[in-house]
Amino acid sequence: MKEQYDVIIVGAGPAGLLAAKALAENGFDIAVLDRRKDLTTLTRTCGQSLLPPNEYFFGDLFHYNAKDKRFCFPHSGLSFPYTGPVKNLYTWRMFSPGMQKMQFGRGQGNEGAPIALSYDKEVLIECMLNEIKSDHVDVINETEFTDIAFQGPTIVVQAGDKTFQSKLVIAADGTNSRVVEKLGYNNNRRHIANLYVKSCFVKGFTPPFEESIITGISFIDSKPVYVFLLPRPEGAEWNFLILTFEAGLDLEAAYEKIIAESGFAEWFKGCEKTREFAAIESIYSPVVKPFRNNVLITGDAGSCQELECLGAMVTGWKAGLTVAAALKEQQLGIAPQAIPQYEEWWLNTYIKKYDYQDYLSIFGIAYIFANPEVVDYVFGLMEEPFLPTFNPYRAVGLLGERLQSLIPTIMAERPDILQQLAGKMLMFPSDLLVQTLTE
Amino acid sequence: MVRINTDECVSCGGCIDLCPTVAIRMVDDRVVIDPEKCTTCKICVQVCPLNAPRVLEEAG
Q1: Residue B16 belongs to a domain with what CATH number?
Q2: What digits encode the pLDDT tens for the residues A380-438?
Q3: Interface contact flag, B26 A144, Cβ < 8 Å
Q4: What is the largest CA-CA distance in chain B?
Q5: Beta-carbon separation of A278 and B29 below 8 A
Q6: How many CB pairs under 8 A join A and B?
Q7: What's the pLDDT at A359?
Q8: What pTM, to 2 d.p., does this model score?
Q9: Which of A93, A138, A143, A435 is the most interior residue, by most CB within 10 Å?
């Protein structure tokens, strides 16, 4: 461990590690700091156990090369070994509280192309750590970023009692980024909500269909709760997540209720928890300018949405390449292009293409429909399966189109619901969430 | 001050991220609150998905 590096990367998740890979391959000396001791064992978790193949996301198209066991991002020129287990998933079934179902994909087993690949994130991180092993990279664990200062062209990074210096810093410290907070960027962002997540791996969950993603909207004490059941790549395990925007909702009690009393209860009989996780995500509007004071933001650190592992990999790699190019421009004394290009790409993806309002509308569904009876009614109208997808942006687009085509039906059957939906669907999802949650 | 109930805590670190006085740290992959820095603002209590942080009443 040295004190001086070309670049310091804060956060040893997928974004930080792939940024390190890009920089090390360009010959720069890198330190990757992380507060955890054990970098491969998951403690914080959300839905990040699936990758969608065949879907463009953040400018790339994820592809799993099964022959050589590699994760590939052809548009970014990125590929690296992933030697862990995988499982293809073909259908996404989304249930209302009364078990009315919306289905993405035809549900005919493994006949079509998969909509998602289930993988093991712990093995993935291990593979990434192996991939970046070199004389150029120090992965420094048990080292938590605490502060940042600027001395002329040098950045001084404080991590507890350790001090490091570098020319550039990459903030890859994820959702609730402390680098972003310390630099004061959160002051210009709108805080919309906190997303509370409890999750666990379970054994013995036995739904009547295999190779399917299962999600649900539930209401606990009339507060919306989202349920995700994602097959693990191996064994008969599932990743069971409960998510809510509702502060003070007891997630442990919600867990018990969903297992014992929800429409899923039958499938949970004899089920057993094998591991437990949690997460809290402070949801802000995205950072608009990702580069200031020689600090480049990437991954979840500057976004509103959780980009999941896929977004983290694509954006982290891009950040590493950008900083490598920027350092070479400095050495050559030529006009900077790499950073302005990154800023433009950021605007086009983080702000425009993957609009955070669209993301919030995905999570806002329960707030738009507002009560279990309406969710049941609307889901009940959606009998015809949708196109196969697990891309939430695509799914919410398909749902919106379908709802529009159903307006005459809803008008005839339930004019009260139509009036309610019309009002809420005209609001910005961020406003709807802020208004409902502060009521 | 606030103490972490280690039976409930899974060390996701969310409270570390959101503690305004940086009183919470990860030590040996466990979440630890520094009693010197903790102001009992209870933000960690509010944000924890598992209700692991508990407020201890001041003695006397």
Answers
A1: 3.30.70.20
A2: 999 999 999 988 888 989 999 999 999 999 999 999 999 888 888 888 999 999 999 98
A3: yes
A4: 33
A5: no
A6: 71
A7: 86
A8: 0.95
A9: A143
pLDDT of residue A277: 94
Which strand (E) or helix (H) includes residue A282? strand A272-284
Chain A environment of B46 (Cβ under 8 Å): 247-248
Subunit contact A146:B22, Cβ cutoff 8 A: yes
Count of structural domains, chain B: 1
Q: Compare CB distances from A176 to B14, B48, B49 and report the shortest one's residue.
A: B14
- B37 domain-assigned: yes
Q: Compute, in degrees rounded to 10, the torsion defined by CA atoms A327, A328, A330, A335.
A: -120
Beta bridge partner(s), residue A92: A104, A213
Residue A364 to residue A42: CA distance in whole angstroms: 28
Alpha-carbon span A25 to A28, nearest angstrom: 8
B48 to chain A, any CB pair closer than 8 A? The answer is: yes
Indicate the residue type of A93: R
CA distance A189 to A192: 9
Sheet with A63-65, side-by-side order of all strands:
A63-65, A70-73, A78-81
The predicted pLDDT at position A287 comes to 95
Contact yes or no for A280 and B17 at CB 8 A? yes
Q: Considering the domain boundaries, does residue B60 fall inside one? A: no
Tally the residues of chain B: 60
Task: List chain A residues with pLDDT less than 70.
Answer: 46-48, 108-111
How far away is chain A from the Cα of B59, in angstroms, using its nearest Cα? 27
Specify the pLDDT at position A210: 82
DSSP code string of A26-41 = TT--EEEE-S-S-SSS
Cα dihedral sign for A242, A271, B13, A144?
A: negative
Q: If you average pLDDT over residues B3-8, what whole number do you get?
A: 92
Residue B33 structural domain: 2-55
Instruction: Tell whether B10 is within 8 A of chain A (Cβ).
Output: yes
Return phi, psi of residue A147, to 5°.
-160, 165
Is B45 at the interface with chain A, CB within 8 A? no
Instruction: For residue A176, give the nearest of B11, B17, B28 by CB distance.
Output: B17
